[in-house]
Write a structure and sequence with these properties.
Elements (H helix, E strand, L loop, with lengths): L9 H13 L2 H13 L6 E5 L4 H12 L3 E5 L8 H9 L3 E3 L6 H13 L4 E4 L3 H9 L9 E4 L2 H12 L7 E3 L4 H24 L7 E5 L3 H12 L3 E5 L3 H9 L3 E2 L2 H4 L5 E4 L9 H6 L4 E5 L9 H7 L2 E6 L2 E5 L5 E5 L5 H4 L6 H20 L8 E3 L2 H15 L8 H8 L4
Parallel strand pairs: 1-2, 1-4, 2-3, 4-5, 5-6, 6-15, 7-8, 7-10, 8-9, 10-11, 11-14
Antiparallel strand pairs: 12-13, 13-14
The structure holds nicotinamide-adenine-dinucleotide and S-adenosyl-L-homocysteine (SAH).
Length: 414
């Protein structure tokens, strides 16, 4: 039985799913294949991914591949209750609602694991972590899993290094058709969509501080520049910092950036990137948000402890009055601003990410009964297949190597 907020919300959720489906042609084409080949016949698939429209469409594609699907969120604030209701009405068992308490989030994740899935699709590592800590008896039944995001893969690598990982995992985030588009262009656009719709303030002429210049940070900084902001970058990696300098951004430590910025966006996957000491240095009214991982990049506990007052300024904007009399505005409780205060990445981007997910799930189903390594890069053929289909739907043709060109490239005696 699904655990959702209100089944009556389904019509609005259905409209959202129908809309994104129109803009996800690669995944639609994979669905056509799945309907014919039914790769997941007789299998149970558990998903822990942001419960919004693109995820819902992805879940139905897996279902159309023959699976019984159990879906939960991967962030207590990113579930859209109308979408959860619509998905439940489409024959998927759903355990999620927006604004879950920690206990409810935990119960919803354990709900999908109790189904005894053979394939697990995780985003951020919570489901795999829970499986290894509390549902070890179910591990032998699991064929494998897929991990959606950068930090989830860091956690898997740490588990593997400790000899703890017992489920073969596909490293979906590290596919080129994932991080080059999702992390860069997806985060780049959806973070500004989330900030703009939440604050309704101008970005042009403002000073934007981006913490972390990885794939997400590059996207966020690039789009901030496009909106007319002056952009500052903080980093800990000398190579990424050099890249940011060459891309035309000012690089400096957070301590120096704190008094400068009007907007702050963290996208590092690290904790305590913005501390209370930094916030005490900020201008009155500075806007601070996170688009990296969970709610640890901004020290929210420290902020709660020092704040003299908390004032709800607008939906998803909490003003914290600091001991120095100035205020900082935190968006979406310090959780992913693009998903907790927006609709996440656009459909055309999730088309690629979820197509990689769908083909990796099929890869696991096709290899059931075989001994797979614990950490599996996405096969190059899957990456290529998604790019080829995407180009086809974009109506873009490319050149192909002639036989002579291929021989030239393959020879050493030039
Ligand atoms: P990445 O590894 O490419 O980049 C992270 C960057 O942050 C690195 O360059 C690293 O050197 C830097 N960094 C780490 N600690 C830092 C610190 N204390 N201060 C300054 N810089 C620091 O990773 P990515 O793919 O860009 O992902 C970043 C985070 O965003 C991850 O947690 C990932 O899971 C998450 N993510 C979020 C979304 C979203 O929709 N909001 C999308 C994709 C990824
Ligand atoms: N669950 C953790 C981990 C970060 S989520 C957390 O909530 O903090 C980051 C992932 O969200 C990205 O890798 C991206 O692929 C995914 N994402 C972004 N927009 C999305 C959308 N519209 N629907 C589903 N997933 C989305």
């Amino acid at each position: 039985m699904s655990e959702i907020r209100d089944q009556k919300l389904a019509p609005s959720g259905n409209r959202k799913i129908d809309w994104v489906q129109d803009h996800m042609p690669v995944l639609r084409s994979i669905r056509e294949d799945f309907l014919k080949t039914r790769p997941f016949e007789g299998m149970k698939v558990a998903l822990s991914v942001h419960m919004e429209a693109k995820t819902a469409y992805f879940a139905t594609v897996i279902k159309d591949g023959g699976a019984e699907v159990f879906a939960t969120g991967c962030n207590p604030l990113s579930t859209q209750d109308d979408v959860a209701a619509a998905l439940a009405s489409r024959g998927v068992e759903v355990f999620a609602w927006r604004g879950e308490t920690e206990e409810e989030y935990d119960r919803h994740l354990s709900g999908v694991l109790k189904a005894g899935p053979q394939i697990i699709v995780d985003d951020g590592g919570d489901l795999i972590n829970m499986m290894h800590s509390r549902f070890r008896d179910l591990i032998p039944g699991v064929v494998g899993g897929c991990e959606e995001t950068t930090t989830g893969i860091h956690r898997l690598k740490a588990m593997d290094a400790d000899g703890q990982l017992q489920i073969p995992m596909m490293l979906v985030n590290n596919a080129q058709c994932k991080f080059l588009f999702d992390n860069r262009y997806g985060t780049g656009q959806s973070v500004w969509d989330g900030i703009n719709r939440t604050t309704n303030l101008i970005v042009a002429g403002k000073k934007v501080v981006v913490a972390g210049y990885g794939w997400c940070g590059k996207g966020v900084a690039m789009r901030a520049k496009g909106l007319g902001a002056r952009v500052y970058v903080t980093e800990i990696d000398p190579i990424k910092a050099t890249e940011a300098v060459m891309d035309g951004f000012e690089v400096l430590p957070m301590k120096e950036a704190a008094p400068i910025g009007d907007f702050f966006v963290t996208v590092t996957g690290c904790r305590d990137v913005i501390t209370t000491e930094h916030m005490m240095e900020m201008k009155d009214g500075a806007i601070v948000c996170n688009a990296g991982h969970f709610n640890v990049e901004i020290d929210m506990e420290g902020l709660d402890a020092i704040a003299k007052e908390k004032i709800l300024r607008r939906d998803s904007i909490m003003g914290y009055v600091l001991p120095n009399g100035r205020s900082v505005n935190i968006l979406a409780e310090g959780r992913l601003v693009n998903l907790a205060a927006g609709d996440g990445h656009p459909a055309e981007i999730m088309d690629m990410s979820f197509s990689i997910q769908a083909l990796c799930a099929r890869y696991l189903a096709d290899h059931r009964g075989e001994k797979l390594p614990m950490l599996n890069p996405v096969p190059a053929e899957i990456d290529r297949e998604v790019a080829e289909r995407k180009l086809r739907f974009l109506g873009v043709s490319i050149d192909h190597l002639t036989e002579d060109q291929q021989k030239y490239i393959d020879s050493w005696n030039l």
